[in-house]
Amino acid sequence: MPTNHAHLAWLAEAALISRGKPQMALSELCNHPVLFPFGLDRLNVSVLQGNPRLRVERQNLNQEFVFLNLALPQP
Question: How many CB atoms lie within 10 A of CB 9?
């Protein structure tokens, strides 16, 4: 299981890109089947905020969503 914050954020970004949609609930992302066999129980908002290509927003009292930061220029 990856423990490095950069690797965890990269896996989260890859999962979003593989879905072809720019957002996902953090709770859904942590348990998404595309990430099998990795367990992302250490994935949290502070880990994701270290990746400039991701943005985290709170939508309800207790639910965060992860967005691909489409505002960044693509290489």
Answer: 21
Q: Quick check: helix, strand or coil at residue 49?
A: coil
The order of strands in the sheet holding 54-58 is: 23-25, 64-68, 54-58
Q: How far is the C-alpha of 27 from the C-alpha of 72, rounded, in Å?
A: 25
How confident is the prediction along the chain (75 residues), in pLDDT tens digits per residue?
Answer: 566 778 888 888 888 998 888 899 988 888 888 878 876 776 788 888 888 899 999 888 888 899 998 765 555
What phi and psi values does residue 67 have, to the nearest 5 degrees? -120, 145
**Torsion angle of alpha carbons 42, 48, 54, 59, nearest 10°?**
80
Integer Cα distance of 42 and 61 in angstroms = 21
Q: Report domain extents, the chain.
A: 5-68
